[in-house]
Amino acid sequence: MSRIGLFGGTFDPPHVAHVALARAALEALQLDAVRWIPAGQPWQKTRKVTPAAQREAMVRLAIDGEPRFALDRIEIERDGPSYTLDTVRAFAAAQPHAQWFLIIGADQYAGLHTWRDWQALLGLVTLAVANRPGLMPPIDPEVLRFPHRVVPLPMLDISATEIRDRVARGLPVDSMVPPAVARYIDLNQLYRD
Ligand code: ATP
Question: pLDDT tens digits, residue range 32-45?
Answer without folding.
Answer: 999 999 998 767 76
